[in-house]
Amino acid sequence: MSARKIWSRAVLYFVLILFLLFFLFPIVWLLLSSIKTHYQTLLIPPRLAFKPTLEAYRKLITGGMLKSFKNSLLIAAVDIVLALVLSLPAAYSLARFKSKFNENIGFWFLSIRMAPAFGVIVPVYIVIRNMRLLDTTFAVNVAHLLINLPFAIWLLKGYFEELPLEIEESALIDGASRLQTLIRVVIPTSMPMVVSVAILTFMFSWNEFLFAFVLTSNQGVTVPVLVASLAGTMTFDWPLMCAVSIGAMVPAFIFVFAVQRYIVRGLTLGALK
Amino acid sequence: MIRLKEQYKLLLPSLAITASIVAFPTVFLLYVSVHQWVLFIQEIRFIWLGNFYSILTSKEFIQSLRVTALFVTSTCALTLLFGLSLALILNEDLKGKGVFRSLFTLPAIIPPVVAGFAWKFLLNREVGFIGGFLFPLMGYKGSILGDPILALLSVIMADVWSRMPLMFLILLAGLQAISPEIYEAAEIDGAGYWKALRFVTLPSLRTAIIIALIIRFIDAINLFETIFVMTSGGPGIATQTLPLFGWKVGFQYFNLGEAAALAVLMLIMTIFISQALIRRMQK
């Protein structure tokens, strides 16, 4: 290796470390603070050597906050299932049923994703209130589906349009219906895309705050709403807040890392056609 | 041919359900935007474009629009700059690049509410590592989120922190899709790294960059929770972007008509700008 090359490597690693500091420091700091006592979090300058305690996590579990984690997981799971069951056939029919009307409907679906949430939330709130479903996980589900479904259809439609027709045609000639073709031929060959749509649905649902905030008050509260309500109070319990924040990251980390290789692939297939 | 069309009927129900779920909010939003409707106070009254007029002429709208323009352009530019450099670096043959890639994706999966809280905590004047320890060491003793300019910079930084990874992922995927042969050709022609970057890499990355920018732009103009948790739009209205303004009009003043009109205006703006970007991509 030439001296010049070693030098440029060193610069690259230096830049990487700088980026890493910026991106990891807040996460590490939350983790450290979550195992301090309240008094220790108040110390300036901060102590790096302290006796760790799991008090904050104990409070999280005994304080009835696990319910919001259960709600969030339930909402995300139901949302993934509903979004896939509804979006796969719809996207497939949009992709194969070409017309001018179709083109426009595709963009209309995407525009729902573009709409500011505070505009969409008023009609959703009114419908949910009339159905007497306020403060239920179902209400949040419906709201999240409203955003996730059009987005899933838009992603899948773009993907299906790029699929070679030959595979489907042989199934169709053999007498299979379109729906059978979709289930037996198209979906199995599109698994990476289906998984990446599931991930995006999960991430939206797990992270979403505003709809859940407006539609729930007590029983149906999700993790982001819990975080915001704790962060909004005047008497801060910093270790508890940090513990809840760490808890809010963990399921997403596990889920996303389990299927990580699909994310990039899905994004390339879906978006970079 | 007719038989084929028959079979499509199987798929149309799902499309119809989806369309009807999406239709109601669309129609309702347009309906409310042309009516005077303040919760608990008035009858609903049709007022043509009155809501649009009062929104567009209000001082707070102009100020929020300025904050939004500043916020959106700087966060888009910074995420693109950082995301692109990081993608270029991690596309090189470096030791441990797999670990680096995984670590850099972490903030993308953190809920924006948590991202907002994390930065609020770090910047806090009493207990924060940055606001209570680093800044006082450097001689700044004020409250970071209490200062109009520093607060705006802080929410931009928090947003870059939480949204840069997605940009990085898309651009890295785009870089990996460029075939090595093009580089070999460029190398034979005697192009160095920077020349190859300018004439080979960036042109091939064009579509990926524009896609990433569209996603980023839609995200940034609608961003609510990070700012809501960090500053709630304050101090004053120094960090109040259009979504926070809309939230205030709709859910604090309960003026649903004007909030809907603002939502329609924002939607038109978003569609207009992203269409322009899409057209650039297709060129």
CATH superfamily of the largest domain in chain A: MetI-like
How can the largest sheet of chain B be summarized? 2 strands, antiparallel
Show unreliable segments of chain A.
269-273
Q: Unreliable segments of chain B (pLDDT under 50, ≥5 consecutive)? A: none
CATH architecture field of the largest domain in chain A: Orthogonal Bundle
Name the overall outline of chain B. globular
CATH class of the domain at 67-253 in chain B equals Mainly Alpha
Strand order of the biggest β-sheet of chain B:
1-2
* Helix and strand composition category of chain A: mainly alpha
- Rg from alpha-carbon coordinates of chain A: 23 Å
> Mean pLDDT of chain B, as a whole number?
86
Highest CATH level, the class of the largest domain in chain A = Mainly Alpha
Number of helices of chain B: 13
| Quantity of strands of chain B, as a count | 2
In percent, how much strand structure appears in the residues of chain B?
under 5%
CATH architecture of the domain at 67-253 in chain B: Orthogonal Bundle
User: What oligomeric state best describes the polypeptide chains here?
Assistant: heterodimer
Characterise the protein shown here.
The complex is a heterodimer of chains A (273) and B (283). Chain A has helices at 3-34, 38-41, 55-62, 66-96, 100-114, 117-130, 137-162, 166-173, 178-189, 191-207, 210-215, 223-232, 238-258, 260-271. Chain A is mainly alpha-helical and 273 residues long. Chain A has two domains: 3-57, no CATH class; 63-271, Orthogonal Bundle (MetI-like fold). Residues 269-273 of chain A have low confidence and may be disordered. The relative contact order of chain B is 0.13. Chain B has 283 residues and is mostly helical. Chain B has a two-stranded antiparallel sheet. The mean pLDDT of chain B is 86. The longest helix of chain B has 32 residues, at 59-90. Chain B has a domain at 67-253: MetI-like (MetI-like fold, Orthogonal Bundle). Chain B has helices at residues 2-8, 12-33, 50-56, 59-90, 97-105, 112-123, 129-137, 148-176, 180-188, 193-221, 225-230, 242-251, 256-282, and strands at residues 35-36, 45-46. Chain B is built from 13 helices and two strands, in the order ααββααααααααααα. Chain B is globular and about 75 Å long. In chain B, helix 4 (59-90) crosses helix 8. In chain B, a hairpin with an 8-residue loop joins strand 1 (35-36) and strand 2 (45-46). At the A-B interface, helix 1, helix 4, helix 5, helix 6 and helix 7 of A face helix 1, helix 2, helix 4, helix 5 and helix 6 of B.
